[in-house]
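Structure tokens please, single chain.
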Amino acid sequence: MIWVIDKLLGGADIPYEVTDRNMSVLEGSISAIQIRILVPDEHEADARELLIYADLGNWPRP
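Here you go.
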């Protein structure tokens, strides 16, 4: 799923940072450590709208 978000945000020129990507892989498949996508406050509304429009449902959360 993260590659979809990479393409959407990158294609819309919305700056973002992916955190905990390596930790999520190391911990295995129990999903104890979630990958986080961080966007600057001034781009939050645009990023949420884009992800919801892409039919990712309620995945984006504060």
